Amino acid sequence: MTRQQMFRLVLIPLFCLLFIQETLAGKEDKQESYYVTLAIQAIASNDFSTAYGYLNQALAENPKDPHAYVYMTIVMNNTNEYDKVDSYAIQALKYLGKDEKGYRDQCYISMYYAALDRRDTVKALSRLNEGLKSKPASPEEFYELRGHLLMSMDKYKEAKADFEKAISLTSESKTSYLGLSACEYQLENYEAALQAANKGLLYEYNEAALYMLRAQSLIKLNRKEETLKDLGSILYLKNDLTWFREIYGKVKSDESYQKMVPSLKIFSNRFPNEFIWPYALGYVYNCHQEKNKALEHYLHAYKIGVGNNDITNSIAQFALVNEDYDEAKNYLEISLAIDSTDETARYMYIATLMEERSMDQANSLIEDALKKNPKDPFLYYERASLKWSVRDFKGAKEDYLKAAELDTMGKRYYFWVAENARREGDNKTATIYFKHLIEDKDLTEIDTSRIYFAYLYLNQEEKALASLNRYMRETSEDACDMYYEVACFYSIKEDKKLALKYLEKAYEAGFRSMNHIGFDSDMDLIRDTPEFKALFAKYSDLGEAERKERKNIYDLGFTKMEDGIISRQDKTYVMYFVDEQAEFPGGMNALMEFINKNFKVPEDAEKKCIFQGKCANCCFF
Which residues of 448-478 are buried (b: 16+ CB within 10 A; e: fewer)? Predict the structure, then answer.
């Protein structure tokens, strides 16, 4: 949800509520003018252009109408004219009566959001402080907003104090409990984070974010089994797999598999027209390397949710990881046909071309995209990845640096800057960025799977091994990917024995990116050994057999494009799910008629008057 959408969903209803409350309570000596009343109705309908016209007419009639100025701040915020918000708010504050606190509150809140949209957090904070000094009608709202702002500035202790203050003023605010739980989690007070999430759920049991924070806290408290019950709530409320993936990836085990699969099957049958349940089931199967079942359920979810790019991109990702490149491109083309601006699909398409070594085509797509959008950091990231794969480490380093410069989350590229500098022989740059990687707390969370490489390069072997063990213990990645990362670590460390050991573990766990292994420079140390060649040959043959088996599943349907239109293949295949639920012949009315004609009460029960709709002896004949 964009900030503008949030403004419309939260601030406008609040504003109308304030108006109604103050009017009913008799706190307003003035009535709204005719044009302001019309503007309120237009704002409630998100018709900001019409509202703007009415408010101008109101101000033409009365240049000192404070309510017109107040409502104008809402219109300006929702039409992205943030620079005009302050001037209207100042005029409103000038003419508003001292007892019109609700409207005064809204002036400060409007100025806060305008500053926030201009990314001026200092001014945004100042506006909230000014509002609190004015003795607002709803101080809890200001404390809550300031708490969220301080959280965004990583000032968790101050934010926590504001959320606690808001809760002390109104104990039923789910948003304050949500913020408090998030602060406690960031401060590593996991028991307190859990308690805050539980209290928030007492007041709002339909808030997915509270279930998410509770699950995260339980994981940190090593109570992973208890998180499983929250996963269904997260799926049901959010209707999205992002959070489910994050949590299940951290708690997956044989026991969680045994509990989760039957539960998801029940929900799939209960809600046959909702794609999220087979989608989640496919993800669980994929986590446990039951790839054919995973693919079947992904395809079923796609059938239900045609037009949902998250599903098509997930199928493409599944295909890419398993080197089903034609299928990956096919589904990505579907995603781009549905939404040509889908950046995830575009990046994955380029990545697929790179993995299948269609480098010229991948480079052409990147260069064309850069001409249209030269400030897109992810395009520089893709071009850097391409250069890295052909061992142009200097060029890759330059593009990673460019991506870091353009991206607000540029820290995420520091590892790759350092790694390519190392490979290029630029030890000075490598040392600087590897140090950044281990010294910055945010970076360790962004790229925890790579911290041990930084320690290794900086000759801190004990810390490198400790970091590696922590990664293996806490990672939410698939086991096969984790083992492959560990194999790369030991290959770079020049420990052939352990590198080969973990590479075999990766293969056994389902790693099948054989093309990637073929050009990954991390594998240079062991690539020419007889053991590596034997493993590579064995699992290449196995991977090819698995691909042929999956091809039959892909052919079950819904993947072909003709003239830009998605169409189902005309094939006969085994149905894993029914298209239509069972129904009594003639429908529900016929069923009720049948029951009325054939339902009989045993004579003994009727004589004893025990039949009251609950008779256990009633039967059909």
Answer: ebbbbbbbbbbeeeebbeebbeebbeebebb
Token pair for 440 = 């910055």
CB 201 within 8 A of CB 227: no
pLDDT tens digit sequence for 490-540: 888 788 999 999 899 888 888 878 878 877 888 888 988 999 999 888 888
Structural contact between residues 400 and 380, judged by C-beta atoms closer than 8 angstroms: yes
- In the three-class reduction of DSSP (H, G, I as helix; E, B as strand; rest coil), residue 155 is classed as coil
State the CB neighbour count (10 A cutoff) for residue 206.
Answer: 11
This prediction's pTM:
0.69
DSSP letter for each residue of 221-241: TT-GGGGHHHHHHHHHHH--S
The 3-state DSSP class for residue 305 equals coil
Structure letter (DSSP) for residue 186: H
Residue 157: C-alpha distances to residues 147, 173, 180, 389, 489 (Å):
10, 19, 10, 44, 37
Separation CA 82–CA 142 (nearest Å): 20
Query: Which two structure tokens, joined as six digits, stand for 269?
Result: 């049958």
- Please count the residues of the chain: 621
d(CA 143, CA 49): 32
The answer to whether the beta carbons of residues 348 and 316 sit under 8 Å apart is yes
Residue-wise pLDDT tens digits, 338-389 = 888 888 888 889 989 988 889 999 999 899 889 988 988 888 888 988 888 8
DSSP conformation letters of 428-483: HHHHHHHHHHHH-HHHHHHTGGGHHHHHHHTT-HHHHHHHHHHHHHH--S-HHHHH
Q: What are the b/e assignments for 436-446, b being 16+ CB within 10 Å?
A: bbbeeeebbeb
Residue in the block written with tokens 């024995």 = 497
d(CA 436, CA 443): 8
Question: 347, 378 in Cβ contact below 8 A?
Answer: yes
Beta strands in 295-379 (DSSP E): none
Q: Which residue has the tokens 């579907």?
A: 334
Q: What's the confidence (pLDDT) of residue 467?
A: 79
Q: Which two tokens stand for residue 110?
A: 């409007």
Angle of helix 393-406 relative to helix 377-389, nearest 10 degrees, comes to 170
243: which 2 tokens? 């959070």
Check if the beta carbon of residue 182 is closer than 8 Å to that of residue 148. Answer: no
**How do strand 565-567 and strand 560-562 relate by DSSP bridges?**
antiparallel
